[in-house]
Amino acid sequence: MYMPDVEARSGEERVPVTQRSGCCHKYHHAVELIGKRWTGAILLVLLDGPLRFSEVGQLVPDLSDRLLSERLKELEGEGIVAREDGLYTLTRKGRELEPVVHGLKFWAQRNCT
Amino acid sequence: MYMPDVEARSGEERVPVTQRSGCCHKYHHAVELIGKRWTGAILLVLLDGPLRFSEVGQLVPDLSDRLLSERLKELEGEGIVAREDGLYTLTRKGRELEPVVHGLKFWAQRNCT
Predict the structure, then answer these.
(1) pLDDT by residue (tens digit) across B65-88?
(2) CATH of range B25-111; options 3.80.10.10, 1.10.10.10, 3.50.30.80, 3.40.50.1820
(3) Option in B15, B21, B108 nearest A30 (CB)
(4) By the 8 A CB rule, do B93 and B79 touch?
(5) Do B100 and A96 touch (CB under 8 A)?
(6) What is the architecture of the domain spanning A26-111?
(7) Is the ipTM here above 0.95?
(8) What is the enclosing helix (H) or strand (E) of A93?
C-alpha cells in the first residue's frame, strides 16, 4: 500500500531502543504545565506584551475569571508570569517559551482544520 | 523594588488590546492535543524514529499500556502517528512538531528544577 505521508524505514535502520533517550522528568513537567487547559492561550496573548487581568480575558474567549485567576497564579508560582502595577507580564523564563508557543501556533495554522 | 527578571515597560508603551490578536481555535486545539497527559512524552520518543508499542512503554516510564494505547489511537486519529508493520511512526504532520517538542525540552532543561 502506498503511504506518501509516512517515511519508509526498515526495522534494520532503527536506532535500538537501548541507545535512545527516554522522556525526562523536566520535559514531562513542562508539557503538563504549558499544556494545561487555557495556559497555552494565556502565554500566547502575553507574548505580545503586558496585559491587565480583564484584557487577558478579552483576548482569550470562553475563559472564566475564576479559571484565569487560577492559571495566572500557577504561572506566577512557576516564575513564568509576574504582576507589576496591575499588569501581568512574562518574566525571562516566560519569554523563553516564545519559540515553543509560536512554533505550535504555526504548526496549528498549517495542520489543523 | 528591583526585579531583574521582569522587563521594564510603562503602560504607554503597550500595544492596545484592540490592536492585538487573540487566541485562535486552531492553536487552542493544538495545545489541548499536545499537552494532554503523556502525549508530549510519546511524541518526544517517536521523534528519534519508529518504535514498537512495548518500546514506547520502555522509554516513557509510568505510562500504563491502556493509556499508551489510548494516546496512540488519538494520535493516529489526528494523522500525527501512523502504524506500519507493527511500528508506530510519525507522519509528516507529526514530524513537523519537532521544533515545538525539542524547543520545550530545551526550555525545560534550562528552566525546570
Answers:
(1) 999 999 999 999 999 999 999 999
(2) 1.10.10.10
(3) B108
(4) yes
(5) no
(6) Orthogonal Bundle (1.10)
(7) no
(8) helix A92-95
